[in-house]
Amino acid sequence: MSDDFDDCDTRDMPTSAGETDAMPDVHGSTGSGRGPAHGTAPHGDGRGAAAWGTIFAVMSLCAALVVLVHAVAPAALPAPVGDQALMVGMGVMALVAIVLGVVARRAARGLHGRRRHRGATAVILVIFAVLILVLGVLVGRAVPGGVIKPPVRDEAPASSVQGMKAGVERAAGQCSGGWHDIEVSGYPGVEAASYCKDTRTAFVTFDSEASASMDRGLVKSAITQQLEGHADDARAKGDWRMLYAGRWMAVGDRQAMTALKGLWGGSQETVR
After folding, report:
1. DSSP conformation class of 236
2. CA gap 192, 185 in Å, rounded
3. Are residues 65 and 90 in contact, defined by beta-carbon separation less than 8 angstroms?
């Protein structure tokens, strides 16, 4: 009786009703029809989300680079839209990239090898984009005019007070009441300063470009205070502009300073 049982190969016997043991194949699948083995990529493994996340991350990085380059050299790369619009767009694209990266990572959970890190590229690119954007904002606030500036034409006779007066009169009109020279001995770095009541213009010359760079802001602030102190006076109203370059600066209305810029060159900005 025992010999009869010994003749039976227990490996061929069913383990339960309707089931037999399945032998694994060389590829690691069980052959039982229950689905792919652990470690193979199932349907929807996050590849699409990872790809789109990387695309949005690259777009956010490009937007941040535009902000930085525009802050460093505004003339070399004028911003296609305002900096604020660029930053908002960059933030939206970065957020979308992070969301897609998280989706890709969750979809690839449980996979072996580098597939488990799907979505990480988008997150890393977004981090770089944020760092570059912060750097661009800091540079823009520290140096509003940009670090790299194009050369400015400067043909003003800054070494000659009479030449400065004559040039301003060519642009703004004859100063029939005569020029009023200002005593500048108490202002270090300032060589000469004169104003004309008739044409509402004035100019200041400095002993060096370094002095001009340091004192120009103080002169502009003093002019602004004078205009605000005489706000009720009709002569103080209007579109006041400041024109400057090298060792000089001039102040007057927009029409006069625009004409003077055509004669001498320089950079123009609004006084108030």
Report:
1. G
2. 9
3. no
